[in-house]
Design brief:
Order of helices and strands: HHHHHHHEEEHHH
Number of helices: 10
Largest sheet: 3 strands, antiparallel
Strand content: 5-15%
Distance between the termini: 44 Å
Number of strands: 3
Structural class: mainly alpha
């Protein structure tokens, strides 16, 4: 991928968090308790498109709240079912195998586990806009967008339209799915989908690579009830290098299954 050195340096500076992990990588950590991941940019970094006040309360208030509640429900589930392997797996694996979660915890895990994971995905694919940044898809993601949507503009229009049609709170996603043909050759398929509340596309075996949070707490302090303006501004902070990196991360990650449960 052609890129000048200055652009490469900027990417490294804005997409690596303090502990060396991007927020979405934390989703696959197997830990006894999750901590709130650092953002890969300063709270002022997405100005003027996403304001500091909103980003700060979104991360330290809402995202932190989901983190705390996730730890609480995982602790309770693990104490009740010490022999259930899935309970001690990563939250990402748990959402991928949601049907195996005990019914009394399934909705709470969906809500707070999705809230933790979905926010990590949302925050990971944004970055400050520099003056020489064109903000267009790169790498294989760019090729796949043209293949499945015809052009970047057609994809952007579809994604925006889907976002405007979401009623209430939810997300819009660009997802990939890896398929294997009869010759054993793997290919990627792209689709635009939406979910309500904190439902996650991973439960349908989709791999999200671009996430737009449509809960009002994601934009209300600056954009108030103007969702269309929020979406328009958000496109300016989409980090397509991070989207490409997330796509590659999904491919490298081993799929999780708990058939024995």
């Amino acid at each position: 991928m052609p890129c000048v050195l200055l652009q490469l340096v900027c990417v490294v500076a804005i997409v690596v968090s303090v502990d060396g992990l991007l927020p979405y990588e934390v989703n696959d950590d197997v830990v006894s308790e999750y901590t709130l991941p650092d953002l890969p940019y300063d709270y002022k970094g997405l100005e003027p498109y996403l304001d500091e006040a909103t980003l700060r309360v979104h991360h330290t208030g809402h995202h932190a709240g989901y983190t705390k509640k996730l730890n609480a429900v995982l602790k309770q589930w693990r104490e009740e079912s010490p022999n259930q392997e899935l309970a001690s797996d990563s939250i990402l694996s748990i959402l991928e195998n949601l049907r195996e979660v005990p019914e009394q915890h399934r909705r709470t895990v969906t809500n707070v586990g999705g809230g933790f994971v979905n926010h990590n995905l949302y925050f990971s694919v944004m970055s400050p806009l520099s003056s020489n940044d064109s903000r267009v898809p790169v790498g294989e993601v760019s090729d796949l967008i043209i293949k499945f949507f015809g052009s970047y503009k057609a994809f952007k229009d579809l994604f925006t339209s889907r976002a405007m049609s979401v009623f209430g709170s939810g997300y819009v996603w660009l997802c990939q799915r890896e398929t294997t043909d009869s010759r054993g050759i793997s290919t990627l398929e792209l689709s635009v989908t939406s979910t309500g509340n904190q439902d996650a596309p991973m439960t349908d075996q989709l791999q999200p690579i671009l996430t737009l949070d449509l809960w009002e707490h994601a934009y209300y302090l600056k954009h108030q009830n103007k969702r269309a303006k929020y979406i328009e501004d958000w496109w300016n902070v989409v980090n397509w290098d991070a989207v490409q990196g997330l796509s590659e991360w999904w491919i490298k990650r081993a799929p999780s299954a708990h058939d024995e449960l």
